[in-house]
TrEMBL record:
Protein origin, superkingdom: Eukaryota
Keywords, sorted A to Z: Cell projection, Cilium, Cytoplasm, Leucine-rich repeat, Repeat
Compartments it resides in: Cell projection, Cilium; Cytoplasm
Domain Dynein axonemal assembly factor 11-like CS, chain residue ranges per copy: 238-352
GO CC, one annotated term: cilium
Protein name: Dynein axonemal assembly factor 11-like CS domain-containing protein
One Pfam family it belongs to: CS_DNAAF11_C
UniProt cross-references to PROSITE patterns, sorted A to Z: LRR (PS51450)
Ranges where the record places region Disordered: 391-410
Family note: Belongs to the tilB family.
UniProt GO BP: outer dynein arm assembly
Amino acid sequence: MAVVGSMVRITEQLIRKKSEHNELIIGTLEELSLHQEDIERIEHIGHWCRELKILLLQSNLIPRLENLNRLKKLEYLNVAINNIERIENLEALEALQKLDLTLNFIGELTSVESLRANYNLRELFLTGNPCTDYPGYREYVIIALPQLAHLDGKEITRSDRLLAAKQFPALRERIVQLEALHKIERDEQRVRVQQSIEEQEASVRDLPDDDERRATTFWQQKSEHCPETRIQMAKFSRRAKEQAAAGGKNLDQPDDRKRTRRLFAECGRPYSLNEPRVNFEFRDEPDRFELDLHVYKYLDTSLVEVDAQPNYVRVTIKGKVFQLALKQDIQTDRSTCQRSQTTGHMLIVMPKLNPERIVALAEEKRPNKVNQSQAAGGGLKGPVDIRSICGGSSQTKQHRINEDEIPDLI
């Protein structure tokens, strides 16, 4: 999808904002950091800050090195993570000692020869550029820039130079051929990316800019690593921030529209849900419900709210809702809530509005013998004492068994 956004410019206000350490004076500024500002062009710095010794422009969208020729005292230039495809326009930087071009899109390796005039240059970083994949890349740069002491953070030794010098004549011819192939592939890539952008734009053309589907489509799409994609991603992110700021939203908080919490069905029946994901135990007793909620031990009780209603109970823990629907109505005015000081668990007891009947047998005096008159009347009342059923006379003596007379088991 196409993302239209105004280009970020280098303004006097921006430079003064970044020069607080120099009391907002930019004429005598020696160090300037303009990283991660989505800047798309280098301008004005050479006119306003001629005393600069360190200039940091990493993580922007700069496609070309330009308008730096007045910085005669500049010693360190960092333009890593930009969209630069060629090294140029740095010949006038007489004091330049360190140049960082990490993670750009430089495919024209022979453009490093433009740095021969920078006789003070000692360190060069090209890591992450397409040209570093060319066979003989390091040897070529070592011979092309004899003043270098370090390349990509690695020291250049005398033996490195001797070995590279033997390969240089044939090496340059091969690198020129690889550059030509890279340019062809780069032209084809521009066409593919543009076509992909147009297709994505057509698929979401009818959606409003703040629609979640538009953002989802953009970030889930497959894209190629190229300057056009980086520009589009940066502008889309900047535009989303501007829309959020205009609407007074906090980017660190989730959008309420993305997830709508529903506590009740359309018919009014409460849902059961556990947003804080706490463990719990629920007991259905004949006369009451008991909910044992395993609240976090060290959570302040002031962050927990309990609400018992006739057909549900709701516990809000740090803004997250735990709600449980009940099968029977409860007596809300008699419900209690207690929390353990040892485990932190919370016990909610909710008496039922219509408890189940509990039949309790009354304790009665139980006679030792059966009342004959009651037996004759047609029924027994109370338990029967089986010990007196086969009672004998006092003259009858129980026959004692002689264990010697019992035969052995076979």
